Amino acid sequence: MSLNVVILAAGQGKRMHSALPKVLHALAGKPLLRHVIDAARALHPACIVVVTGHGGEAVREALAAPDIAFALQEPQLGTGHAVMQAVPLLGAAATTLILYGDVPLTPVDTLKSLVGAASGGMAILTAELDDATGYGRMVRSGASDGERPASGASDGERPAWGASDGERPSPGRITRIVEHKDASPAERAIREVNSGIMAVPTAYLKDWLSQLSNNNAQGEYYLTDIVPLALADGVAVESATAPHAWEVLGVNSKSQLAELERVHQRNIATALLEAGVTLADPARIDVRGLLSCGQDVRIDVNCVFEGDVVLGNDIVIGPNCVLKNVCIKAGTRVEAFSHLEDAEVGAHCRIGPYARLRPGAQLDEHVHIGNFVEVKKSVIGAGSKANHLAYVGDSDVGKNVNIGAGTITCNYDGVNKFKTIIGDGAFIGSDSTLVAPVTIGAGAYIGAGSTITKQAPPDKLTLTRAKQMTVDAWKPPKKAGTLPAS
Ligand code: UD1
Ligand code: CA
């Protein structure tokens, strides 16, 4: 079934106290609005229209894509008014799904069941909240929750097409939605709330929007007022219930953002555990992107995974590691406090503790990168080791190379970058500086403390080192007025 999607994102988000438009604040490293767009895309809609207002230019810039149209709502006169601005951009699809740009966690399956519930009319996504303050309340006829029946609605005459009455015996039919500010005390006792997310027949929607008035407590054009218009036109008004409250919770403040971040992270951790990943503490892992794990992966506490991270089988990630866009092959250990970004790590490597792999680090199998070693844009061959305090940048390192403590590839002259090539089996003595462009031949030895500026031939010892000498005549300087040592 083809679908239009409208995403409301014009609100200011005053309570965020931020210059950034609310829907651009990140949850799991991704703008709130992008979560909603991604869920919308999963429904393969015919069109997606985002309604912007406050910070519209920034929102458009951040999220522009060929499949997204933007409508500007200026000024913001309510949710009904917001949808009106999208109407000229709506496709011909029979149903229009309305989402909120600040409600990031609604699962695609929940949206699918909402759209399914709208197959014979319109449908509203609702949830039961312990504290419904501020939300629009679902008013139903044949009240079973103690609310008074809605007065104006023509209950008896309403044709019952769509889902059969038998399916939902107890709660009664939806007659209207009352906003918190307009609600009576009895209505405020209702705990079933309007999430704001709804699926509506497109042709009817256009007609009903044109009939809205702003005669209410807030002087706004309420989208929710289409409910009585639907009933008057004999269109069924159904609901789908979100299985969990978090699915429909919106972000209005930093504290709500933090709450939803924890919910989302907990959901990801649960999915990892169910897939067989060992997590030292499911409350202490953050995944801001996609983490895919092979079998028998163990992840210690306080690790952050960003972008696309792929871990093979039998991998151990120590505590306090950050991995961003990395791919690690089977059997590798990443020890505590390591930071890996845009890197590829082969099988059976040992990284860290305190290692840094920067963009373009490509390690073959059985490579050891130890503490305070930084590798950037370099290929490191199988079995090579840089175990302590080194910088390897713009380098091509062969197999079984030993890079001693304190080795620096001097790859940068302040303007240009140059390459260092180290052949198989070379041994770079501690505290050497390799001034690129430079080549160290296979099997070459570099004496500790050397500054290498020219090619070092293979299988030979090369060193640049002033000869050690001892000055016998030397005496330590004396300070004036210093008492002679007794
Ligand atoms: C709305 C619903 C309420 C529901 C609640 C859920 C109406 C009249 N009320 O409340 O029943 O329980 O959402 O959170 O629909 N927006 C615009 N333009 C506007 C006004 C709002 O784009 O002129 C967007 C906001 O950016 C936000 C969403 O619509 O994404 C909801 O706006 P908000 O003001 O938070 O909701 P209410 O109108 O208070
Ligand atoms: Ca709101």
Topology:
Elements: E1 3-9, E2 26-27, E3 30-31, H1 32-41, E4 47-52, H2 56-63, E5 68-72, H3 79-86, E6 95-100, H4 108-117, E7 121-128, E8 137-140, E9 174-178, H5 185-188, E10 192-201, H6 202-209, H7 226-232, E11 236-241, H8 254-274, E12 278-279, E13 285-293, E14 298-299, E15 303-311, E16 316-317, E17 322-328, E18 333-334, E19 339-345, E20 350-351, E21 356-357, E22 361-363, E23 368-376, E24 378-380, E25 385-393, E26 395-397, E27 402-403, E28 408-410, E29 420-422, E30 427-428, E31 433-435, E32 438-440, E33 445-446, E34 451-452, E35 461-462
The protein binds uridine-diphosphate-N-acetylglucosamine and calcium ion.
Please supply descriptive tags for the structure shown above.
binds calcium ion, 8 helices, binds uridine-diphosphate-N-acetylglucosamine, 32% strand, alpha/beta, 16% helix, 486 residues
Structure description:
About 5% of the residues have low confidence. Helix content is 16%, strand content 32%. Strand 2 and strand 3 form a beta hairpin. The protein is an alpha/beta fold. The radius of gyration is 32 Å and the shape is elongated. Calcium ion (CA) binds next to loops. Uridine-diphosphate-N-acetylglucosamine binds next to strand 1, helix 3 and strand 10.
Number of strands: 35
If helices are DSSP runs of H or I spanning 4 or more residues, what is the number of helices? 8
The low-pLDDT segments are 144-169
Based on secondary structure, the structural category is alpha/beta
Tell me, what's the shape?
Answer: elongated
Q: What kind of assembly state do the chains in view correspond to? A: single chain
- Hey, roughly how much beta strand do the residues contain? 25-35%
Report mean pLDDT, rounded to a whole number: 93
Helical content stands at 10-25%
Alpha-carbon distance between the termini? 100 Å
Radius of gyration: 32 Å
Bound molecules: uridine-diphosphate-N-acetylglucosamine, calcium ion
Biggest sheet features: 21 strands, parallel
